[in-house]
Amino acid sequence: MLRRTPTTITLTQADIEQWEASRQRKLHEAQQKLESEIAANESNAVYKPKESKQKSTKDRIMGGTGKGY
Questions:
Q1: How many CA atoms lie within 13 A of 25 on its CB side?
Q2: Helices then strands, each counted (H, E), the chain
Q3: Half-sphere exposure of 23 (CA within 13 A, CB side)
Q4: CA-CA distance, 65 to 59, in Å (whole number)?
Q5: How far is the C-alpha of 26 from the C-alpha of 58, rounded, in Å?
Q6: Which of 13, 32, 31 is nearest to 21 (CA)?
Q7: Cα 42–43–46 angle (5° rounding)?
Q8: CB of 56 within 8 A of CB of 66?
Q9: What is the DSSP string of 17-38?
């Protein structure tokens, strides 16, 4: 059987800097996406009417306010 010479992988400083820049860019994009989704949810929440909580059986029978006081 023939033997190959071992493969050597070398990383240069430029390779590391390029990987780090790519990683930082992806993190920044993910952060921007998350912030825009939060802002969109907050703006939608302002215009949505509040959902009324359904009264429990005890509140309906005893005439409670449904606020748990």
A1: 6
A2: 2, 0
A3: 6
A4: 7
A5: 53
A6: 13
A7: 90
A8: yes
A9: HHHHHHHHHHHHHHHHHHHHHH
DSSP H or E stretch at residue 60: helix 57-62
**Is the whole-model pTM more than 0.70?**
no
Task: Tell me the pLDDT tens digit for each residue of 8-63.
Answer: 999 999 999 999 999 999 999 999 999 998 888 877 765 555 556 677 777 777 77
DSSP 3-state percent helix, strand, coil across the chain (nearest 5): 60, 0, 40
CB atoms near residue 59 (< 10 Å): 15
Spell out the residues 6+ positions from residue 58 whose beta carbon is closer than 8 angstroms to its own: 64
